[in-house]
Design brief:
about 300 residues; mainly beta
């Protein structure tokens, strides 16, 4: 009887496994894993990762993949030099150390969920940072949450000539300037939801944007365009793009694309070109009896 029962159990397990593989594919049956950074190095280097905080490194050829969660800690720098994927990334907060996720030239990272980046700690007069450094690479994420905010910058996202695409919101915990997005080159930030909107109020802006020579592209449906000092600003996608009542200038170019509808809330000065539409879709723009100044070409 015991032998018969064991055989039945084996057959049931095999049937369930076959059904799971048939429904989700062979690679989808594996359980999600949480990886912790224990050494600096490349994303695909197994010696950078442990399955426990501060633990021993995983075996050769093992590193985070799509569906896995990643915890960056210990003052380590993890570099994505080729292609990588995971379900979520979180940094440890309050530590007096610099921890960095670096997307190198030619590197690409896809995070299907949220990147959570709290402030790092402070020691005497030194501010430490949790940093997403996109450099010349490519980062895609479902959302980015700057948590544990304050008055000084200790958590940041740096963009050189690379591209960041966030399909959801980029949020900050407070109105202080601690959450910083800084361009050092001609990179692009595409955001499908809110940009540095406070999670507490859900309406007011927080954080800081250092525009440099970069471009911010609001790509979603109806969005509020907060009054940062933009270099190049693109309003694409669809719906109404509501300009802040305190937004009165754009240093570079303003581009309206997709099927958006835009109305100025105050007088607006555009330092560069002003381009409306792509010749295919229809956009709507109204100055609402306000002054409009364009330093470059308007078409």
């Amino acid at each position: 009887m015991r032998w018969v029962r064991n055989e039945l159990i084996k057959r049931v397990v095999l049937i369930i496994a076959a059904l799971l593989i048939g429904l989700f594919g062979e690679g989808s049956v594996a359980w999600a894993t949480t990886y912790y950074s224990v050494n600096s190095g490349d994303w695909t280097n197994n010696t950078c990762w442990s399955l426990t905080s501060g633990g021993v490194a995983v075996g050769a050829g093992v590193y985070p993949g799509a569906g896995d969660d990643v915890v960056l800690e210990g003052g380590k720098t993890i570099t994505v030099s080729s292609s990588g994927a995971c379900a979520g990334v979180s940094f440890t907060g309050g530590k007096s150390q610099n921890t960095t996720l670096l997307i190198g030239a030619g590197g690409s990272l896809v995070v299907s969920g949220t990147i959570t980046i709290p402030r790092a700690g402070v020691s005497t007069s030194t501010n430490y940072h949790n940093t997403i450094d996109v450099g010349a690479g490519t980062l895609q994420a479902g959302a980015i949450a700057f948590t544990d905010g304050g008055s000084d910058n200790r958590h940041q996202m740096l963009i050189s000539t690379g591209t960041v695409t966030v399909t959801g919101d980029i949020t900050t915990a407070n109105q202080g300037a601690s959450a910083t997005i800084a361009f050092s080159g001609t990179g692009t930030l595409n955001v499908g939801g809110a940009l540095l909107t406070q999670t507490i109020t859900g309406t007011q802006t927080g954080g800081a944007l250092v525009a440099g020579a970069g471009t911010v592209n609001y790509t979603g449906g109806s969005q509020t365009i907060h009054a940062f000092s933009y270099n190049n600003l693109t309003l694409s996608g669809s719906g109404t793009k509501a300009l802040s009542t305190s937004m009165n200038s754009i240093t570079g170019c303003l581009v309206l694309a997709g099927t958006v509808s835009v109305s100025t809330a105050v007088g607006l000065s555009i330092g560069g070109d002003f381009r409306i539409g792509d010749g295919v879709n229809s956009v709507a723009f109204s100055v609402m009896n306000h002054d409009l100044s364009v330093g470059g070409i308007s078409d």
